[in-house]
TrEMBL record:
Alphabetized Pfam families for the sequence: ETF, ETF_alpha
Keyword list, A-Z: Electron transport, FAD, Flavoprotein, Transport
Domain of life from the UniProt record: Bacteria
Residue ranges constituting the Electron transfer flavoprotein alpha/beta-subunit N-terminal domain according to the UniProt record: 5-185
NCBIfam families xrefs: PRK11916.1
Entry annotated with the keyword Transport: yes
Name of the featured protein: Electron transfer flavoprotein subunit alpha
InterPro entries attached to this UniProt entry: DHS-like_NAD/FAD-binding_dom (IPR029035), ETF_a/b_N (IPR014730), ETF_a/FixB (IPR001308), ETF_asu_C (IPR014731), ETF_asu_C_CS (IPR018206), Rossmann-like_a/b/a_fold (IPR014729)
Matching Gene3D superfamilies: HUPs (3.40.50.620), TPP-binding domain (3.40.50.1220)
Coiled coil: none
Length: 317
């Protein structure tokens, strides 16, 4: 597989850099990384960048989109041709997508969001991404000299840090945009520290759970098998029983776990887009016709209120 000449990497979330750098090394020859603030350098440098640019930190009320003009000043525009030689790779967060859109206008470049895989060869550069709410995957051929891609969580296996790796570090001057976007106020909300895309084992709960209080039963099972707890969309966004960060599905988390144990989840395609990446899927549902059994490696038709306590008792011995 051939590679792109230059890859520029940026994320508003430090945790995502390991995945982005893995993709950058796979798809590009020269890897340039941009980070917010000098304090991020020790964590990012071991991940294998060729050059590291430190962006001046903005005030708490500034928006990430305001970095667009700064990035444009650093990125050398390649000569026009029918295949990109420069890739701008960012995390598929809300801020990342907003910045990607602004860069697309300033650089006259193609933008593809929520990319799950990228191919670079003699025929061109193609990005595969989810579409129609996760019911299908689209494949786009990028023909602009610069390609801007936001990478979906879990799409690439994170690169391992190499403490001995060193690279040049430069300070990037902040270029003030003509129209800055300012945040008037920030209100804190409770966030989960869990990252299900990195969990090795996940227990997922769906509409089969009758009461929020019964989450303690699910958590007990997860603790016994050393797993994190996730959920289907109705549990997080309908009932609000769990944090949004634990929602597995179309616009949620894509699992890469060794095990995904589903409890009372019907298995609609919107959910399985997020869960189907698990190596082994075990489904428990009282409806023998539930779609989840088409995806499961192992299935058990039964009431989770009877099966889960039995599993806890057996696995706790």
């Amino acid at each position: 597989m051939s590679k792109l000449t230059n890859v520029w990497v940026f994320s508003d979330n430090l945790v995502r850099y390991a995945e982005l750098l893995a993709g950058a090394r796979q798809w590009g020859e020269q890897v340039n990384v941009l980070v917010q603030g000098a304090e991020a350098v020790p964590a990012i440098k071991p991940l294998g960048a060729d050059v590291l640019y430190v962006l001046a930190e903005q005030s708490a009320l500034q928006r990430v989109e305001n970095y667009a003009e700064t990035l444009v000043s650093l990125i050398e525009k390649p000569a026009a041709q029918h295949s990109p030689v420069t890739l701008i790779l960012m995390s598929a967060t809300k801020c990342g997508k907003a910045l990607a859109a602004r860069l697309g206008v300033l650089l006259d470049a193609a933008v593809v969001n929520d990319v799950t895989s990228l191919s670079v060869n003699d025929e061109g550069t193609c990005a595969e991404h989810r579409m129609y709410g996760g019911l299908a995957f689209g494949r786009e051929k990028i023909i602009t000299p610069i390609a801007i891609v936001t990478l979906a969580p879990g799409a690439v296996e994170p690169i391992a840090a190499n403490p001995s790796h060193d690279c040049a570090v430069y300070q990037a001057n902040y270029v003030t945009p003509r129209q800055e976007i300012l945040c008037k106020e920030r209100r804190s909300k409770s966030l989960s520290s869990v990252d299900l895309s990195k969990a090795k084992r996940v227990v997922g709960i769906g509409r089969g759970l009758v009461s929020q209080a019964d989450l303690s039963m699910v958590q007990e099972l997860a603790t016994v098998i050393g797993a994190e707890v996730g959920c289907s969309r109705p549990i997080a966004e309908g009932e609000h029983w769990m944090e949004r960060e634990r929602y597995i599905g179309v616009s949620g988390v894509l699992l890469k776990s060794d095990l995904y144990l589903t409890l009372g989840i019907s298995g609609q395609i919107q959910h399985m887009v997020g869960g189907n990446g698990a190596k082994t899927i075990v489904a428990i549902n009282k409806d023998k016709n539930a779609p989840i059994f088409k995806y499961a490696d192992y299935g058990l038709v039964g009431d989770i209120y009877k099966v889960v306590p039995a599993l806890i008792e057996q696995l706790s011995r």
